[in-house]
Amino acid sequence: MKITREKPEILRFIYRQESGDPHYGSCLWAIFDIDPGRGMLNIQSDCGNYAYRWPERGGGFLELLCGLSEDYLIGKLCGKPQEFDEERTIASISEYLNDMEISDGKKRKSIENLKTTLSGYTLVDAPEVAQFIIDQWNDEEGLEIDCAWELVANKYGAWQERIVDIFIEHIAPEIKKTVKEGVPDNE
Q1: Domain spans of the chain?
Q2: What is the pLDDT of residue 117?
Q3: Phi, psi (deg, nearest 5) at residue 103
């Protein structure tokens, strides 16, 4: 075993909401630690803790952070979406049913039955349960949708989306300012 000790140069950006902010209460505080020498972003916040390491280093890493899109960043920090998205699931199933050769009345009735079935569950953190329910609904309706569970859509949580919004709207512009000021290239 080998253990080494380092003293990395960390850029720290601290975000604090003030009572007059438009989204006050959505994330009261967040600490964004950026290690350009390692290509690491670590976030500790009121909205949860997140981290990711990129292969880019130094000033190139800081410039990379300035140009990240919300979709890319949330995927890196949070992985796959894990919350059941009822609205998108019903939309994707409706679209799928439109391509099937069944009557409009049967489609409408099946979708109404699906909405009723889903309303009886709290599925925010249980996409696997939603997949089971959709498969069961498919069997009960006699629709014969092949792999109906694949039509279940998921989304990111509100806190995950909020921390990414904060980064894109508030932290990335501060990183740009820091790059313009000429922060040492910590390679």
Answers
A1: 11-81+158-181, 83-155
A2: 85
A3: -65, 155
